[in-house]
Design a protein that fits this description.
Layout: H1 2-5, E1 12-19, H2 24-27, H3 34-42, E2 56-57, H4 59-63, E3 72-81, E4 87-95, E5 99-100, H5 115-119, E6 123-125, E7 153-155, E8 158-164, H6 173-188, E9 194-199, H7 206-217, E10 223-226, H8 235-246, H9 258-281, H10 290-297, H11 301-349, H12 353-356, H13 361-369, H14 374-377, E11 378-379, E12 400-401, H15 408-440, H16 450-454, H17 461-465, H18 468-496, H19 498-501, H20 512-522, H21 526-529, H22 535-550, H23 564-591, E13 595-602, H24 606-616, E14 622-625, E15 628-638, H25 644-648, E16 657-662, H26 665-686, H27 689-692, E17 696-700, H28 711-725, E18 729-730, H29 743-761, E19 778-784, H30 792-800, E20 805-807, E21 815-822, E22 825-835, H31 836-845, E23 850-856, H32 860-871, E24 879-885, H33 889-893, H34 895-910, E25 914-919, H35 932-940, H36 942-954, H37 961-964, H38 1009-1012, H39 1017-1020, H40 1059-1069, E26 1094-1095, E27 1110-1113, E28 1120-1123, H41 1132-1137, H42 1140-1147, H43 1161-1174, H44 1223-1246, H45 1279-1291, H46 1305-1317, H47 1330-1342, H48 1354-1361, H49 1366-1377, H50 1382-1400, H51 1402-1405, H52 1409-1421, ...
Parallel strand pairs: 1-4, 1-8, 2-5, 8-9, 9-10, 11-12, 13-15, 13-16, 16-17, 17-18, 19-22, 19-23, 23-24, 24-25
Antiparallel strand pairs: 3-4, 6-7, 14-15, 20-21, 21-22, 26-27, 27-28
Length: 1506
């Protein structure tokens, strides 16, 4: 019963695998694949399949439990599940023949039958026989799975006959087939199923397989299965087909040909491989290990399937390849990062193209290693290559392995880097070139879109080269610059028009009328129109400015950190404390001047010679000077000494002065360089105030060898250097002396040093006694404009450098106190330094005894602010005007500075104020004496000022139109240190003495020292000042050119007035008709000959700004009335009738204070002009209009009425306060003038032709005439051109900036005027600069009716210049020149030859042919700059003139073509009409006046009056 209930066990079958076996002789070198077939069927997993099995065993292995002394192996069993679901167990037996590894003969076993007999056995028995796994199992059975053959015996149920169809190893297939045939015969006797397994089909030989199939076809029921144990193809099919033959109940399996089965198997493998690889690719860390990953994946079906099919080894290999790939990807990524970083490293270490452009790669590597930043960019590894070291894992270390640079990629990056630098340099150059192109296009306005400009630059080379983005970027940058510049200029314009804004009180709100007035005035300004496209920004700037004007604070100052209040507070906070600490020591050190330490500087032994000469004149180093004995300590040092600076200043030797001696141009240049080094050392390094003010004295040594040859040049250059350095110059005295130095020179030099020492330390005053800080005798306000181009310490240095300066009360951060002796007592003066915007409130609300108004002579806005502020100051308060610039040379070289300084001085003259100038480069400007006269004037008027302040505090200040002009006091002419000889000549005096060969010092003589003591600074260097009643000590150093004698006029009974004076007087009485008693004579009745008066000592008398050089005695009162030379004479009748005596009498009594704008014609006319401009559109009959009446026969440039002209009012008009005009008279005049203006406008509209404006404002019979009228066949060169060229080549060929630096326009006009009057005049006698002559020469050509180079030839010149071949181009130009009119050709050749000589001195004058062509081509060719088409040829025309200058010898003298411009500079043309002198130092200031140039008689009229 129990047996029936048990589940039936699956059927069990035993299969015997047989085939060719035996010794190597029988079966060859390898078997037929029986073991591999069994292995793959029993253990199909790849890891359990062993491809190598051996039949050669040792006796021990043969006798082991696995073989068990049998010639068969038990492979174990396999449970198979058929397609019908029936399971069966298959035991596999392999019949083989083991060979003894010793005898190589079959081992002896219990069954001694042959293999054919044994293989066909159906019953096998072997006790405790273990399952065979692999060869390694033999002898190590305990390490493998141990499974016994069931019951030690098996009954064979079927046979698998293996036939190897591969190319046998040393075996013939026929022999195998014969063996199989015999074996089959024995097997068939057992009546058991047999199936043929064609093994090793993966290495199949086709005809072998066909023979096997043929063999099987000849047998009954014998099937062939094509198998491959290596790829596991049809192995299982072979056994299941045999089982079906044994059990007919099972379904018959389909036997598939090998190729089809192989494809199916490989598809399974490929699919599994893909799945496994995707699984492996999830691992991204190349540091992962197989052990870790396999443990994670072992339960994954894709992993298990691949392991079963391909095995762990292949899986591990796949994983290893993936890991290696990850590592290589990481290395490649790091390499790419390093390669990408290389350009940045090269930019850091090899950024200089000039340094590496010609280096090869190894040289560049060596250069990089020497760089200090090398370690920051690269790392040198101990082990290489870098990708096999742990450096690949240091992801935070961004340094590049240095061995990477040995690769080709790195070298290529370096080459690309060099090319990038080259292209970037080219790109930058082109961008800058394009930027310059934009700068040359004048019509680009701020805010103009790029699209409007692009069409004008389409053909530009730089525009074509750069990208669109670069073009827009450059244009945007250009727009930012011009917009910023336009805004700055607009802001500056607002400050220049300060009178428009500052006429209202603080915290006021401008009315709509006021805003209309502002806009009406500003809208005429080009700087206002420049922001037309940026109207909102312009409006914002204007409103911001107005807001600041009426609500000024330090925080809202438009100058930001440059606000004067901020800078003053910072400076005083730092300086006053140091002054208080060091005052007593300073006084003690400076008081002892009985001993004078002198530093003597010279070259080639000159210093020692001067020291010996001084010792010769001394007694035991004691020198007697002016009755006092001084102990001298001399220290001569050669200028070439390397220890110059160290010897100059030591603890034991502190020089009081330095004598600088020279006897040649070379030594003078050397001295100048040494002084520059000394001053730089003192000011920048040591910051020593003694050294900074060390007095220098230039001394010219006598020339015994060539007394007259070089002395004038040395004197000229020495004086010039002294002017530049602002120091005295000691000339060689007249006469001859046996020694190089004269006693007079030494004494003059010593006096200068002593005066400088006394002046600097102010030892005449005792140690100051500090008063109570709350007390101040005088309260002075110094005003300066924010943003002015000078340092605050410059304007404060006259106070801070004085030992009498101390801090003010606590809380007054912008004030300081001075203790000065004024008169006979010591006074305490409080100086408050404020900006103009902060001073406005002080001006109205606080007691101020005087104003020091500072302005920059470089800035019109500074003068505008001064005028606006001064206009509202009460005229009872004394004012000191201070102009600030770099040096006195600015006055001579810069017309704008000259104009502003002259305007300031003129205003000072008009309001009876003081005027002085401070020079930042002067060593004498740090002195309080410059303000001493001003302080005295303030002290004198102190009571009147305080009374006026008290009275103003108790009542409202009201001013009517009638009171305005009654308070202007009449005064005598104010002395003026300038020397204007005409309306156009307003230059200041030169800082040299006119004494000729006599030794002259800039310091005063002992006899005059008492007059100069309080104002010593103004005479040591040219500070312009206008003190009252100082005629005796003022000097006018300039001698005017000879003037024509005036027509003789009677000195009495003058009945006719100059027309302009008449208009002036009419305007003055217009507002007060009750003063007028009789009508004035009309202007038309005035005879021109009556407009002259007798000259009054034109040369040696001292004049003020009003040019009072003519005077006529009054016949009734017998007194002198001085008037300007540009107007007629005044008489007593007019004076009395116009109310002048009444006005004069009222000035002596007390009066209510007015404002300075009513006292100054300049200030009043400026405000008047604003009103006129703002209301000019309202009516043609307005009172304030501009007079356009011309003076008969004497045209003077400006045609406006001098009283009403807002510009340069000091150049005309009588010395009188501003006078209002009669309304009726003005109306009548205006109607006539308006009609005339309209006619002029109509006429101007008709004439549209292009004619360059002439600079002349006088009639000439020479200048402006056709060139043919000025030459003759004998003299083909105009006389004026010849004179100018000879003068320039004789005196100034080496002048720096020749033809580029503008000369004084007044001098240029005077040169032409005087030549007009006398063609034989000598330019050398006119005392004019080379630049003025050069300017006059250019003006000659500019005034010609037609240009020197005819317009008709301009296109030919342009076309010729475009010829690429140089030789062809030059010959074509030469042919064009031959087409010139003969007169033009001769003059053109002469001018180009001269310019060639100038270019030869380019190393000295810096005027190359290129520079000269830039300066001269517009003059010679007269282009129309308003024509846009012309803009494209400007550079071409300039290059044409440059070519003419360079190739002068080729064009005009049949010379050879020069290759370079340098060769031109060293090869003079054959024609040399004038003898050139040796090069000298370029002139920067006017030369000293020579006595021989002073004309004893006045023979000409340089002013053009007659």
């Amino acid at each position: 019963m129990m047996a029936k209930n048990k589940e039936p066990r699956p059927p069990s079958y035993a299969v015997s695998v047989v085939g060719l076996s035996g010794t190597e002789k029988d079966k060859g070198n390898c078997g037929v694949g029986k073991s591999c077939l069994c292995n793959r069927f029993v253990r199909s997993k790849a890891d359990e399949y062993y491809p190598e099995h051996t039949s050669v065993l040792s006796t021990i292995d043969f006798g082991g439990r696995v073989v068990n002394n049998d010639h068969f192996l038990y492979w174990g069993d396999v449970t198979e599940c058929g397609e019908d679901g029936i399971d069966c167990k298959i035991h596999v037996i392999e019949q083989t023949e083991f060979i003894d590894d010793q005898t190589f003969l079959p081992h002896r076993s219990t069954n001694l039958q042959l293999y054919i007999k044994r293989a066909a056995a159906t019953k096998l028995q072997s006790a405790e026989k273990l399952m065979y796994i692999c060869t390694d199992q033999l002898g190590l059975e305990q390490d493998f799975e141990q499974k016994q053959m069931p019951e030690g015996k098996l009954n064979i149920d079927g046979f698998v006959l293996c036939i190897d169809v591969s190319q046998g190893c040393n075996r013939k297939f026929d022999d195998q087939l014969k063996f199989v045939n015999n074996l089959y015969i024995q097997l068939s006797k057992s009546k058991k199923p047999i199936i043929i397994a064609a093994t090793k089909c993966d290495e199949c030989v086709e005809h072998y397989l066909r023979e096997v199939q043929a063999f099987a076809s000849n047998k009954k029921n014998l099937q062939v299965v094509e198998t491959s144990a290596r790829f596991n193809v049809n192995v299982e099919t072979c056994f299941t087909a045999l089982v079906q033959m044994m059990d007919k109940t099972r379904g018959k399996p389909k036997i598939i040909p090998y190729l089809d089965a192989y494809k199916t198997q490989r598809q399974l493998v490929v699919t599994a491989t893909d799945k496994f690889e995707k699984l492996v690719q999830t691992v991204r860390d190349y540091h992962a290990t197989w052990k870790t990953v396999s443990n994670k994946l072992k339960n994954h079906p894709d992993y298990e399937e691949y392991i079963n099919l391909e095995g762990t080894k292949k899986a591990k290999n796949t994983f290893s390849k993936h890991i290696e790939q990850l590592k290589q990807e990481h290395i490649r990524k790091r390499r790419d990062e390093y390669i990408n970083t290389l350009p940045r490293a090269f930019n850091t270490l090899l950024s200089n193209l000039e340094e590496i452009e010609h280096l090869n790669w190894p040289e560049a590597l060596k250069l990089m290693e020497k760089r200090p930043d090398f370690q920051q960019c690269f790392v040198v590894l101990e082990k290489t290559p870098w990708d096999e070291t742990d450096h690949i894992d240091k992801v935070n270390d961004r340094r590049i392995p240095f061995d990477l640079l040995s690769t080709l990629e790195a070298e290529k990056v370096y080459q690309n880097h060099v090319q990038h630098l080259i292209s970037e340099k080219r790109r930058v150059e082109m961008k800058e070139k394009f930027k310059k192109t934009l700068e040359r296009i004048q019509f680009i306005s701020p805010g103009q879109p790029w699209e409007e400009v692009m069409c004008f630059v389409m053909e530009d080379e730089a525009f074509k080269y750069i990208t669109e983005a670069d073009s827009r970027e450059v244009y945007s940058r250009h727009q930012r610059e011009i917009v910023e510049k336009a805004k700055e200029e607009f802001q500056e314009m607002l400050f220049e028009h300060s009178e428009l804004f500052y006429d209202l009180d603080l915290n006021a709100t401008p009315s709509s009328d006021k805003m209309s007035e502002i806009n009406a005035v500003l809208s005429e300004e080009p700087r206002y129109k420049a922001l037309q496209k940026l109207a909102p920004d312009r409006e914002s700037l204007l409103l911001k400015h107005i807001g600041f004007v009426y609500h000024p604070t330090k925080e809202t100052c438009l100058s930001g950190q440059n606000c004067m209040d901020v800078k003053v507070e910072q400076l005083l906070a730092n300086s006053l404390l140091q002054l208080d600490h060091g005052r007593l020591n300073l006084y003690h050190d400076s008081a002892n001047i009985d001993k004078v330490n002198l530093f003597i500087l010279g070259k080639d032994g000159l210093a020692q010679e001067l020291a010996n000469e001084i010792r010769t004149q001394s007694t035991d180093d004691e020198y007697t000077l002016d009755g006092k004995i001084y102990e001298l300590d001399l220290r001569p040092v050669d200028a070439k000494s390397p220890y110059l600076l160290s010897q100059l200043w030591t603890a034991a030797f502190k020089p009081h002065g330095c004598f600088c001696v020279f006897n040649s141009i070379e030594s003078l240049n050397f001295i100048g360089e040494c002084i520059g080094k000394i001053r730089t050392e003192a000011s920048q390094i040591r910051r020593d105030k003694y050294m900074a003010s060390l007095p220098f004295t230039l001394i010219l040594a006598n020339q015994r060898e060539s007394v007259s040859k070089h002395l004038p040049i040395l004197r000229h250059q020495g004086q010039q250097l002294a002017n530049k350095l602002q120091c005295p110059f000691i000339d060689v005295p007249a006469g001859t002396y046996p020694r190089k130095f004269n006693e007079v020179q030494i004494k003059q030099a010593l006096r200068g040093v002593l005066e400088a020492v006394k002046h600097h330390f102010d030892v005449v005053s005792p140690v100051p006694i500090i008063k109570d800080l709350s007390e101040a005798d005088l309260r002075i306000v110094m005003c300066a404009m924010c943003g002015d181009p000078f340092s605050v310490d410059l304007i404060l240095s006259p106070f801070l450098d004085s030992h009498s300066c101390s801090a003010a009360q606590a809380g007054q951060n912008n004030s300081l106190m001075l203790d000065k002796i004024i008169g006979e007592k010591r006074r305490r003066i409080q100086i408050t330094i404020l900006s103009y915007h902060s001073s406005i409130g002080v001006r109205k609300d606080e007691l101020v005894h005087g104003y020091i108004l500072v302005y920059s002579a470089k800035r019109k806005a500074s003068m505008g602010m001064l005028r606006a502020f001064l206009s509202e100051v009460q005229d009872t308060i004394p004012v000191q005007l201070v102009a600030v610039t770099d040096s006195q040379a600015d006055f001579f070289e810069n017309e704008a500075i000259k104009e502003l300084m002259t305007e300031g001085e003129h205003i000072a003259t008009e309001i009876t104020a003081k005027f002085t100038a401070l020079y930042s480069l002067s060593q004498y400007h740090r002195q309080t004496e410059v303000f001493t006269l001003f302080f005295s004037d303030v002290l004198e008027k102190k009571n009147m000022i305080e009374n006026s302040y008290v009275s103003d505090s108790t009542r409202e200040s009201t001013h009517t139109s009638e009171d305005v002009f009654l308070h202007s006091p009449q005064r005598s002419s104010i002395a003026y240190s300038g020397y204007p000889d005409s309306e156009d000549d307003t230059e200041a005096p030169p800082p040299y003495s006119p004494g000729g060969d006599d030794v002259q010092l800039l310091l005063p003589t002992p006899s005059d020292r008492s007059k100069y003591r309080l104002d010593l600074e103004g005479n040591e260097y040219p500070v312009h000042s206008t003190p009252l009643n100082c005629h005796d000590h003022e000097r006018n150093h300039k001698v005017p050119p000879p003037i024509k004698p005036k027509p003789i006029v009677p000195k009495t009974n003058v009945k006719k007035l100059d027309p302009n004076l008449l208009k002036t007087i009419e305007a003055g009485i217009g507002k007060n008709p009750r003063k007028s008693r009789m009508p004035l004579a009309p202007a038309d009745d005035v005879d021109q000959s009556d407009n002259y008066a007798e000259p009054i000592d034109t040369i040696f008398k001292f004049r003020g700004i009003t040019d009072d050089i003519y005077a006529v005695p009054d016949d009734s009162q017998n007194r002198m009335i001085k008037i300007q030379n540009s107007y007629g004479i005044n008489n007593v009748q007019g004076d009395e009738e116009n109310g002048f005596p009444d006005r004069i009498s009222r000035t002596h009594g007390e009066r209510r204070p007015s404002k300075y704008k009513y006292k100054s014609k300049t200030l009043f006319s400026k405000a008047k002009s604003y009103y006129r401009r703002a209301h000019s559109d309202a009516s043609d009959d307005e009172a304030f209009t501009t007079s356009k009446t011309k003076r008969k026969g004497r045209h003077r440039g400006s045609e406006e009425d001098p009283l009403l002209s807002p510009v340069e009012t000091w150049k005309g008009g009588i010395d009188n306060p501003a006078i209002t005009s009669d309304q009726e008279l003005d109306d009548k005049k205006m109607k006539k003038k308006t009609q005339k203006v309209k006619e002029d406008k109509k006429q101007k509209k008709k004439t549209k032709t292009f004619n360059p404006p002439t600079r002349r404002n006088w009639e000439s019979n020479y200048f402006g005439m056709p060139l043919q009228d000025l030459v003759t066949p004998d003299k083909p060169i105009p006389l004026f051109v010849e004179k100018c060229v000879e003068f320039i080549e004789n005196t100034g060929l080496c002048t720096e900036g020749l033809y580029r630096v503008s000369g004084n326009k007044t001098d240029q006009d005077n040169i032409q005027k005087q030549f007009d009057q006398d063609h034989g005049i000598s330019l050398e006698s006119m005392d004019v600069t080379v630049n003025a002559v050069a300017g006059a020469l250019k003006a000659f050509f500019a005034d010609l009716p037609d240009p020197l180079i005819p317009y008709s030839l301009h296109p030919e010149l342009v076309d010729a210049s475009k010829i690429i071949d140089k030789t062809e181009r030059l010959y074509e130009l030469k042919e064009i020149v031959k087409k010139f009119h003969p007169v033009n050709y001769d003059v053109f050749r002469y001018v180009i030859t001269h310019l060639n000589r100038v270019s030869q001195q380019s190393r000295t004058n810096f005027m190359t042919a290129d520079n000269l062509s830039i300066c001269f081509w517009p003059t010679l060719m007269r282009p129309d700059f308003e024509n846009r088409e012309f803009l494209s040829t400007t550079k071409i025309l300039q290059s044409v003139i440059e070519t003419f200058i360079q190739q002068c010898q080729f064009f005009f003298y049949n010379g050879d073509i020069l290759e370079t411009s340098e060769s031109v500079a060293h090869q003079p043309p054959p024609s040399n009409p004038v003898q050139m002198v040796d090069p000298i130092i370029p002139l920067q200031l006017p030369p000293p006046l020579q006595p021989q140039l002073i004309q004893p008689q006045l023979q000409a009229d340089p002013l053009g009056i007659i």
